[in-house]
C-alpha cells in the first residue's frame, strides 16, 4: 500500500509509519512540526506543512489516508487558542481530499468524547459538559469531527484510542507514564494527582498500530465502523501505576500527592470520570486482540528514556 498519514511525525503517526515501512509499504506524510516526536522518518516522504494544506498536496497514487494530526496532550492543549476550529478545519480538509481522490479514511478520534465514568461502549451517549476548558474543547472538537467523518461520502473507520502510551510519548505534554518514568529515573517525587484512585487502562501504541493496520488492509469491509481500541487487561489505578514505575526503575523517589492545577496552572483539567475502561467487544470482531502488557509497556518506555531517544515538545 501507499498510505498518507497526517501528523506522520507525531506519536501515533510515527509508530504507524515505522510499522508500514517495516512491512514494505510506502508512506507519505504531512506534518507541520507543531507536535512532532521525531525529526524524520527514513524511507518515508514527508511534507512539512499544516494538514489543512492536504487539499493542494500532489500525492500521486495513494491507497489509504490515516488522519492522526491533532492537538493532543492535557498540558499541550493549554497553549492552543482555537482547538475546536483546528480539529474541525483539519478534518474537513482531509475529507475533501479523500472525496476528491475517492480514498478510504481512518480517522483517529479519542476516548475523551465519552462523558460517563465506567465502561465505555461505542453505542453509549457522548455527553459534552457546558463548562469551558481546553480539555473539553478537545473532546467537543473530536466528537464534532467524528460526525463530519461519519456523515460524509468518504468510506471511513473511526477509532477511539484509550490512554495510548509507549516510547516517544512526551512527558511535557502531560502524559502520565512518561512523566512518572522521567521523575523516577531522575529520583524526583512522582506527582500523583488527588488520591490516585483514578482507574485507567494504558494501551501500548503497538496495539493501536496493529488495529489500524488490520482495518487499513481492508477499509471498505469495516467502513462506517466506530471502534474502541484499548487494553482492559491493563486496568490500574494511577497510584498503583506510580508504584509499578518505582519498582521497575528501582527508584527511591517518593510519591507526592498534589493536583493538576497546582502543577500545571488553573487552566488544567483532569480527565472526566474516575473510572475509564474500554469495552473492546466490537474491535475484537475484526480478529484483533491487545497484546502488550502494562509492565512491558513501562519497561520499553524506561529503556527509551535511558537511551535518550526522546525529544520533549513544549
Low-confidence stretches: 310-314
The CATH class of the domain at 2-168 and 203-232 and 275-291 is Alpha Beta
Largest sheet, order of strands side by side?
3-2-1-4-5-7-12
Cα(first) to Cα(last) distance is 34 Å
**CATH level-two architecture of the domain at 2-168 and 203-232 and 275-291:** 3-Layer(aba) Sandwich
In CATH, the topology of the domain at 2-168 and 203-232 and 275-291 is named Rossmann fold
**Total strand count, please?**
15
Rg over CA atoms, rounded to whole Å, is 19 Å
Categorize the overall geometry: globular
How large a portion of the residues is in β-strands, by DSSP E? Answer: 15-25%
Task: Describe the 3D structure.
- This protein has 314 residues and is α/β, with parallel strands linked by helices.
- It has a domain at 2-168 and 203-232 and 275-291: Rossmann fold.
- The chain has helices at residues 11-22, 83-101, 134-150, 176-185, 205-216, 238-249, 260-264, 281-284, 294-307; strands at residues 2-6, 26-31, 45-48, 64-67, 105-108, 118-120, 156-161, 164-165, 190-193, 199-200, 203-204, 226-229, 236-237, 255-258, 276-278.
- It has a seven-stranded parallel sheet, with helices on both faces.
- Helix 2 packs parallel to helix 3.
- The longest helix is centred in the first third of the chain and has 19 residues, at 83-101.
Amino acid at each position: 500500500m501507499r498510505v498518507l498519514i497526517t501528523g506522520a511525525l507525531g506519536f501515533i503517526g510515527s509508530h504507524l509509519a515505522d510499522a508500514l515501512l517495516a512491512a514494505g509499504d510506502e508512506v507519505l506524510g504531512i506534518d507541520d512540526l507543531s507536535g512532532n516526536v521525531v525529526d524524520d522518518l527514513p524511507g518515508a516522504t514527508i511534507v512539512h506543512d499544516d494538514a489543512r494544506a492536504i487539499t493542494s498536496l500532489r500525492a500521486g497514487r495513494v491507497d489509504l489516508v490515516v488522519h492522526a494530526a491533532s492537538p493532543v496532550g492535557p498540558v499541550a492543549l493549554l497553549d492552543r487558542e482555537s482547538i475546536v476550529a483546528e480539529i474541525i478545519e483539519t478534518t474537513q480538509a482531509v475529507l475533501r481530499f479523500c472525496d476528491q481522490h475517492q480514498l478510504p479514511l481512518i480517522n483517529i478520534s479519542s476516548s475523551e468524547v465519552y462523558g460517563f465514568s465506567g465502561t465505555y461502549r461505542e453505542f453509549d451517549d457522548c455527553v459534552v459538559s457546558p463548562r469551558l476548558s481546553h480539555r473539553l474543547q478537545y473532546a467537543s472538537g473530536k466528537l464534532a469531527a467524528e460526525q463530519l467523518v461519519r456523515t460524509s461520502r468518504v468510506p471511513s473507520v473511526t477509532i477511539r484510542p484509550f490512554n495510548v502510551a509507549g516510547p516517544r510519548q512526551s512527558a511535557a505534554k502531560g502524559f502520565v507514564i512518561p512523566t512518572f518514568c522521567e521523575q523516577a529515573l531522575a529520583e524526583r517525587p512522582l506527582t500523583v494527582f488527588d488520591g490516585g484512585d483514578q482507574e485507567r487502562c494504558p494501551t501500548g501504541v503497538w496495539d493501536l498500530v496493529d488495529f489500524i493496520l488490520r482495518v487499513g488492509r481492508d477499509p471498505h469491509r469495516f467502513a462506517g465502523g466506530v471502534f474502541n481500541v484499548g487494553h482492559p487487561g491493563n486496568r490500574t489505578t494511577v497510584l498503583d501505576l506510580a508504584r509499578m514505575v518505582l519498582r521497575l526503575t528501582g527508584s527511591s523517589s517518593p510519591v507526592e500527592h498534589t493536583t493538576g492545577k497546582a502543577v500545571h496552572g488553573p487552566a488544567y483539567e483532569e480527565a472526566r470520570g474516575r473510572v475509564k475502561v474500554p469495552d473492546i467487544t466490537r474491535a475484537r470482531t475484526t480478529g484483533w486482540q491487545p497484546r502488550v502488557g502494562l509492565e512491558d509497556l513501562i519497561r520499553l518506555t524506561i529503556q527509551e528514556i535511558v537511551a535518550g531517544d526522546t525529544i520533549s515538545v513544549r
